[in-house]
Amino acid sequence: MKRHILIAILTLVALTAAAQHDEQVTVEGKYRPKVNKVNKLVLQPETPQPSYEFPSSEVNPKEAKQKFALDLEKIAPTAFTAKDDKLVVPTKNFIMAGAGTRLSPLFLYKHNSMLTKTLGLGVGIKHNSSWLNIKDYAPSSYMNNDFEINLTTSKFDGLQLDGGVYYNNDMYHYYGINLVETPLTEEQLEVYASKITYNKVGGHLGLASTTTRVGELSHAANLDYFYLFNREHAIDFGYSLGYANNFWGDKSHPQNIGIDLGFQYDYCLGQEDKLFVVDRIMFKVNPFFEMSDEFFRLHLGVRLDGATRDSDDDKFLAVRPDLSGSLFVLDKKLEFYAGLNGGRKLLRFSDVIGDNPFVSPYINPSLCVQNVKLGFDGGVRTNIMETVDLHLGVRYRHTDKDPLYVYHIPDADLLPSGLDPVLNTFDLVYDETQLVTIMTNARVKMRNSLTIDLGFAYNSCKPAMEEYAWYRPTTEGKLKLTYDFNNQLSFNTAFLYQGGRYAKVWDGVVDWQNFNFKAEKLKDVFDLSIGADYKVNDQITAFALIDNVAHQKYQLFYNYPVTGIQFFAGVKLRF
Q1: Would the pLDDT of 70 be above 60?
Q2: What is the per-residue DSSP string for 322-355?
Q3: Cα separation of 570 and 100, whole Å?
Q4: Are 405 and 379 spatial neighbours (Cβ–Cβ below 8 Å)?
Q5: pLDDT tens, 136-160?
Q6: What sign results for the dihedral spanned by CA atoms 544, 105, 356, 147?
Q7: Which residues does residue 475 pair with via DSSP β-bridges, in sequence order?
């Protein structure tokens, strides 16, 4: 504990010197009413207009996308607006291009415009890759490509239609093998470390009413589809219907009655002699009632869902609570909130590889339906001090069939003769877990030049059968600082921390009848990045980023350490 405190103090001292922008690229311009929110009634539908937030200079060059479950959220009901939150002047085109060590290129293009008064167009292209092999551990490389196009129209009377298509191409070639300790021939490398490429195409179609009048029905429908080549088909359909009226009380605070309906289907399969098929259907019915006033908000609902049975012991139908509420005091500068929830979720292969791209393409056992038997959220948010937002929360999740990552055991007939198995991909095991999270967030705005975002969480996750919740951190921390030196030059810093992670690893004894495993504590994640932006003019901004300043080769997943220190630089163009 003392060591963790010392690290935190030293980090805070180091971070005050410089910083790194973390504003995200988004394309807005459509009115998407949420009928299950009371405050929908105060929104005014408008003709879609293009707008951008200023883009991030974070290029995420690590071998696997760094995912931290810790939220840095808008924390007070009347939270102040920091400079990072403000939209810049709308622009039709945005380009971000740069290169880093190993000639790793980054390219991002966004277009957003109105083709007519009622028809909006959005286009996005992104590329990020390593052109040279990464040799920190073993020769490896990666490439990520994304393309999307969207159309939005409010031409129909009282309705807004939006739709789009996208294509993703991801390639991973990480051996997960220390070639110094385990030298392999080219033939053997093909067996253990062939390239994995995932191509995904999909589309979205949505239709929503834009009415905000009390006493009128509001509704929204969406249809989503994607195909992950040779792996998975998936269809999602959702429909929401709501009716708001002044059944009693203040006319400025009408009550809202509604229902959310959902249907999901997916078809997942393997390849060649490893063929497996998962054919699943899930639906939900979620009626609710909402009301609010100056000092409270209340949501009362229930969720009924059904899913394909995974075994004869599973219940096809289940009922879960959908309850939440808030109490506002001190002129809405202090909020106490609490809620109960739960429900099922289709665990999809595309979600699994998005979290861990080194999962075996032949998942064994097959994908299951994750089931949150009971969830609780509670806490307090405040903005009593004008320049400080604070949030303290507690979360509880009792989850059945929670997926955890373990080594994939290859078949003996797939290995070269006389070669010991090198286990460098992952399978899923399912367990029943109980998770308690205590988390705190803070955002501080000092004057107009320095903004600090801080988050910390302690997680206690107890599996029913496994020794540990593999790869789940016990402690998590984030610290982000933004400092504007003047109107042209700004600095940013991001510090990420995770501790208390364990991996289930093979003990090294070759026994095809009985593989033995042991728990191994992974090195704590300690990742510091420093960046700067220099605004040449209203159209051109130069950026630079030093990633993983401390040159820490921690392992996101066992046998897959991230690269050390890296440097990126480039430009952002708006026109």
Answers
A1: no
A2: EEEEEEEETTTTEEEEEEEEEEEEE--HHHHHHH
A3: 9
A4: no
A5: 666 778 888 999 999 988 777 778 8
A6: positive
A7: 458, 499
- Kindly give, in sequence order, each residue whose CB lies less than 8 Å from that of residue 3, ignoring residues fewer than 6 positions away: none
The 3-state DSSP class for residue 147 equals: strand
Q: Give the whole-angstrom CA distance, residue 135 versus residue 180.
A: 12
Burial of 19 (0-12, 13-18, 19+ CB in 10 A): buried
Name the helix (H) or strand (E) containing 2: helix 2-15
List of residues 6+ apart from 315 with CB closer than 8 A: none
Taking residues 468-492, report their average pLDDT.
Answer: 91
Q: How far apart are CA 449 and CA 451, in angstroms?
A: 7
As a whole number of angstroms, the distance between CA 25 and CA 220 comes to 26
Query: Helix/strand/coil (H, E, C) string of 48-95?
Result: CCCEECCCCCCCCCCCCCCCCCCCCCCCCCCCCCCHHHCCCCCCCEEE
Q: Report d(CA 436, CA 163) in Å as an integer.
A: 39
8 A C-beta contact, residue 39 and residue 77? no
- Secondary structure (DSSP) of 181-208: TS---HHHHHHH---EEEEEEEEEEEEE
196-209 vs 255-269, strand pairing mode: unpaired
CA 416 to chain centre: 39
Q: What pLDDT was estimated at residue 62?
A: 54
